[in-house]
From TrEMBL:
It comes from Deinococcus rubellus. This is TolC family protein. Its main location: membrane. Belongs to the outer membrane factor (OMF) (TC 1.B.17) family. It comes from the Bacteria. Keywords: Cell outer membrane, Membrane, Signal, Transmembrane, Transmembrane beta strand, Transport. Residues 52-71 are annotated as: Disordered. InterPro entries: OMP_efflux, TolC-like. The lineage of its organism: Bacteria, Thermotogati, Deinococcota, Deinococci, Deinococcales. Residues 55-68 have a biased composition (Polar residues). Residues 1-35 form the signal peptide. It is found in: Cell outer membrane.
Length: 361
């Protein structure tokens, strides 16, 4: 019987070896590509990117260009009638306001999604510290039980606290990639990994409520659309008020005008109510930042005292660890308060049709 030669074995093994090397090279390139598609963004950077090239603002700009072209064509057409001219002008005005409103809405979305990532990261740090603390507390409870100076109930409570914080830590870690994917979609970044920086301190609420109320009709798309409807209805009444148009047509036009005026008045009242509520919410959020900052300062003092007691031998290391966790909790509360102020300012911007964050200008 003929046996295979060593050369034949080598030639049969070589394609497998080459294929394995090719696979490893492909995986290496894929890993490098993955590492290269990571973007670090500040909050202003994220908003700027979304406004410049995000899908929503891109669509609104295209709609504005379309409205501009249509208005120009109607103006240049000597056969266009007054209703066509008014409609083109209204379409252009609506497109301009819609673009401005889209920018504010996109800014609000980016602020919310960006801060969701940042808060998930901060919550992860806090929960990690809490898990470490409660792990130590469980060890102490078990040691006290062994020394017969604690009960099984004390151990059970410590175990429950640890389990609860472990679950919160897992939830915080799970929220981060979800929030990052949402922001990537808003920015049009696809599968790019996003790393966020600490957001800057929110600006002061310097705009007076009266200044935001002024000119609201011309800044909100719903009110602009309602005003356009009134204008069109007025024009229809005007062209129907003659002796060659059926009386019924004029009556219908007058009814439509009355309805349009009521809708506009109702829209104004609703918009002012929303603006007032958003302004008050921003004021409350600003005050909460001050309260949280004071709480953080107090917690820092508590930690300093715990460290001094440890040094003096009147406190245990676990007491200092607890104070450190409480300080982290206060820091997280302040970060949340500042984030809520950012979000309140963004919501106020949308309600006012005017940027008060400084991010969308």
């Amino acid at each position: 019987m003929t046996t295979p030669s060593r050369t034949a074995h080598h030639s049969a093994a070589r394609p497998f070896t080459l294929n394995a090397l090719a696979l490893l090279a492909t995986l290496s390139l894929a890993a490098q590509a993955s590492a290269q598609t990571s973007t670090a963004l500040s909050l202003p950077d994220a908003v700027t990117r979304a406004l410049a090239s995000g899908p929503d603002t891109t669509t609104s700009r295209a709609n504005l260009q379309k409205a501009q072209a249509n208005d120009k064509a109607v103006r240049a057409d000597p056969t266009s009638i007054i209703t066509d001219q008014v409609s083109a002008q209204q379409g252009l005005a609506s497109a301009q306001v819609n673009l401005s409103n889209t920018k504010l809405t996109v800014m609000q979305t980016v602020v919310t999604q960006y801060l969701a990532i940042y808060e998930a990261e901060q919550r992860t740090d806090l929960n990690t510290a809490q898990v470490n603390y409660y792990s130590r507390s469980l060890q102490i409870a078990q040691a006290r039980l062994a020394a017969k100076v604690a009960t099984q109930l004390d151990v059970t409570k410590a175990q429950n606290s640890l389990s609860s914080n472990q679950q919160e830590l897992a939830d915080a870690k799970a929220q981060r990639p979800i929030a990052a994917a949402q922001l990537a979609k808003t920015l049009g970044l696809g599968q790019t990994a996003i790393n966020v920086k600490a957001p800057p301190a929110p600006p002061q609420l310097s705009a007076a409520l009266a200044s935001l109320q002024a000119g609201l009709d011309g800044r909100l798309p719903t009110l602009v659309q309602a005003a356009n409807t009134v204008q069109s209805a007025q024009l229809q009444v005007k062209v129907s008020d003659n002796d060659y148009t059926p009386a019924r047509t004029l009556q219908d036009a007058q009814t439509a005008l009355s309805n349009a005026q009521r809708d506009l008045d109702s829209g104004r009242k609703a918009a002012l109510t929303s603006l007032n509520d958003a302004y008050r919410a921003a004021q409350n959020a600003r005050e909460q930042v001050g309260i949280s900052a004071a709480s953080l300062a107090a917690q820092q003092t508590t930690l300093n005292q715990a460290q001094a007691k440890l040094k003096a031998g009147t406190a245990a290391a676990v007491d200092v660890q607890n104070a450190q966790v409480q300080l982290l909790s206060a820091q997280f509360a302040l970060a949340q308060a500042q984030d809520n102020f950012w979000k309140a300012l963004a919501a106020l911007s949308v309600a006012a049709g005017k940027d008060v964050t400084g991010l969308a200008q």
